[in-house]
Amino acid sequence: MDHLAVVDLTDPAFWSNPYPVLAEARNRHPLARGVDGGLIALSFDAVESVLRDPRFLTTDLLAPRGITEGPIADWWGQVMFSANPPEHTRLRRLVSRAFTPRAVESLRPSVVDITEELVTGLVGDTVDLVAGFAHELPIRVMATMLGVPAGDHRRFAAWTADLGLVFSSVHAPELMSRLEAAITGLNGYVAELIADRRAHPGEDLLSGLIAAEADGDVLSEAELVAMVENLLFAGHDTTRSMLMIGAALLLTHRDQRALLSGTPDLAAQAVDEILRFEAPVLGSGRDAAESLDLFGVPVEAGETVTTMSLAANRDPAAFDDPDRFDIRRLGGKLMSFGQGIHYCLGAALARLEGQVAFPMLLERHPHMELAAEPEWVPYASIRRFEQLMVTIA
Ligand code: HEM
Per the structure, how many domains does the chain have? Predict the structure, then answer.
């Protein structure tokens, strides 16, 4: 082997506090290895180089889990996460015509209403902020964004929640059949929504996606369905994690909580600092399309490099005093939404949800306290707690 540190992601202890291990490895070299020998990019520079380098392509998430055909493989084959140029460029261009900053901003009143309803619904001595708040907000926002009728919200929410199972580190058969059922259910449901919206176009994102056109090119019917499912899948578990993690950080950092409560104008910076300090998504995988040199380490064609946003976000070469949670940081710079051509399409929507949710949560429940120390779920590539119990009164 080489001189790189080995980071053991199979050690459950890693997941409860990954930062000392990552810092030690990153001090040695911008890259480390997993216990399987796979390369891991740690420094801000190294993660950025991999994600911006066209010689790195998306990695196949399903084949290593034995999924090569069926509804899951068909769906995954059409999402932007797994696409490379030129297919990716085409899909991204079309979706960007509909998913504009203006379309996101127009959701603000709905985000405020939904948050208000959820925050008001937090009653009782002790409540779980995951189930009662973090889980619900992003699903309801996306249902509104796509114009899903209220009567269908429950069914729609159950399918959306199940899509995240594709990222489970253990693909047990019963999880796979739940995921398959969610995709099959959504395929039929979204196709109906599309037919309805073709007949009665509205102001919602789905109408925008149907109408999106670039140089005479449009999304096909199957691509539209996959795109909607891509947005649901990408926007739920991630935003849910940001909301639960952010609430926990604010409740455990009293000075920062007081600062945000007293100065709601800090909301944008606070959200970026939450995302930087505890990245909801561990990182991304990329496969080298050709042999290359990465920070002095040879990478063979076909070899996978995993980028670790957690380590990049705490790199002292990129951030002053990176292990300090400080919502007065200017924001903007963070690895949590990725970099390069796959940079998170929904970053503005996620930020909007956080900027509305955190100040409102603190304002409506000024006496909220943690009822129990939240525990990180080990091996979760979208980092989360099973529950976040708080006392309200
Ligand atoms: C705090 C919440 C979120 C986080 C932390 C997050 C994080 C990320 C990251 C790290 C990537 C890059 C993946 C890669 O490099 O392979 C990504 C891509 C993506 N995100 Fe997000 N995301 C969030 C919310 C959302 C929302 C709300 C939506 C949509 C409604 C969304 C839609 C997407 C899409 C479609 C992509 C794929 C883009 C592409 O491949 O070109 N995300 N996200």
Answer: 1
pLDDT score for 170? 61
Question: Of 178, 176, 167, whose CA–CA distance to 61 is shortest?
Answer: 167
- Report pLDDT digits (tens) over 290-302: 999 999 999 999 9
Q: pTM value?
A: 0.96
CATH classification at residue 271: 1.10.630.10
Distance 62 CA to ligand 1 centre (A): 18
**Is 93 among the domain residues?**
yes
- Is 279 a member of any domain? yes
Residue 156 lies in a domain: yes
Q: Which domain holds residue 369?
A: 6-391
Q: How far apart are CA 292 and CA 229, in angstroms?
A: 35
Domain membership flag for residue 1: no
According to DSSP H, which parts of 64-135 are helical? 71-76, 87-98, 101-105, 108-120, 129
In the chain, the amino acid numbered 222 is A
Mutate to test the pocket of ligand 1, among 240, 306, 337, 356 (most ligand atoms within 8 A of CB): 337
Residues 194-242: pLDDT tens digits?
999 999 999 899 999 999 988 899 999 999 999 999 999 899 999 999 9
Q: Which of 76, 84, 146, 238 for mutating ligand 1's site (highest number of atoms within 8 Å of CB)?
A: 238
Indicate which atom in ligand 1 lies nearest the CA of residue 51: 15
